[in-house]
Amino acid sequence: RFDDANSKCAVGKVRAKTGTLTGAIALSGLTQGKDGKWKVFSFVENGSTADPNAIKDAMDGLAATVNGCWA
């Protein structure tokens, strides 16, 4: 995870758990932002026709954005 150029900044800063079911992909976790505050997030994609790897990269980017290292 976080292997995309846009999300590499989140390596070691985001703690999260993935989940998958038929037709659904999720990422939930927490991160301490640049402001020092803890932030909790949960992203769920359900019924998408997009490539699952593209969805995972997008969720990684969202987690990096929550952290504040990529906006």
Walk me through what this model shows.
By secondary structure, the chain is an alpha+beta fold. The model has no long low-confidence stretch (mean pLDDT 92). It has one domain. It is globular, with a radius of gyration of 12 Å. The chain has a three-stranded antiparallel β-sheet, with helices on one face. The chain is built from one helix and three strands; from the N terminus they run βββα. Strand 1 and strand 2 form a beta hairpin. Helix content is 23%, strand content 37%.
Tell me which oligomeric state these chains represent: single chain
Beta-strand percentage range: 35-45%
For the sheet with most strands, the description reads: 3 strands, antiparallel
Which structural class should the secondary elements be placed in?
alpha+beta
Give a short synopsis of this structure:
This protein has 71 residues and is an alpha+beta fold. The chain has one helix at 52-67; strands at residues 14-21, 24-32, 38-46. The chain has a three-stranded antiparallel sheet with strand order 1-2-3, covered by helices on one side.
Key descriptive features of the protein:
71 residues; three-stranded antiparallel sheet
